[in-house]
Amino acid sequence: MNKKIVDRQGSGENNLGLGGIVRGLGDLIEKLNALSETGEELSQTGEIRQGEHVKGIYGISVKVGLGGKPSIEPFGNLHRDTRSGRTIVQEVREPMVDVIEEEDHVLVLAEMPGISAEDVWVEVKDDLLTIAAEKKGKRYRKEVLLPGNFKREKMQIICNNGVLEIKCLR
């Protein structure tokens, strides 16, 4: 289940700035408690704008599995520099990725708005899948740890409306 957090003005957009990020994290903690009981998923995104231009995109995806243990995965192009402690905006965005294990395959889903199949580059080495894409100034890159070793020849790749599906056959 995906839920969108609506800002305090009720516009439906997450154009909040740094104060909104802190407020959003408080809301997130409240929702995590509810999710731990239901085993659902929460995804929250937002933008930091300067005038008409988007300067930063951030988001997190929180999933609670069968054992009740939450899995938190950040995505976007805002990252904390460990040396300076400052938040930096990178040119390359991390897409939101889901890894779903099935009996005969593993399905990897990556959300990359504006990207089509021709724009995607995929590489796998043992259990590490690297996804990269670029189109019209939008750049994405993500390394995904797979639940086993897979060969590139045994992968089926489909990209439709910015959603990349990689089916890794066992």
Architecture overview:
With 170 residues, the chain is mainly beta. The protein folds into two domains: 1-91, no CATH class; 95-170, Sandwich (Immunoglobulin-like). The protein has one helix and eleven strands, in the order H-E-E-E-E-E-E-E-E-E-E-E. The strands form two sheets. A seven-stranded mixed sheet has the order 1-2-3-4-9-8-7, with helices on one face. It has a four-stranded antiparallel sheet with strand order 5-6-11-10, with no helix packed on it.
Keywords:
mainly beta; seven-stranded mixed β-sheet; four-stranded antiparallel β-sheet; single chain; 52% strand; 1 helix; 170 residues; 2 domains
Number of strands: 11
- Biggest beta-sheet profile: 7 strands, mixed
SS class: mainly beta
Strand proportion, as a percent range, falls in over 45%
Q: How many whole angstroms does the radius of gyration measure?
A: 17 Å
- Detail the poorly predicted runs: 1-16
General form: globular
Average residue pLDDT: 77
Strand order of the largest sheet: 1-2-3-4-9-8-7
Q: Spell the H/E element sequence.
A: HEEEEEEEEEEE
**N/C terminus separation:** 28 Å
The level of helicity is 10-25%
User: How many separate domains make up the residues?
Assistant: 2
Number of helices: 1
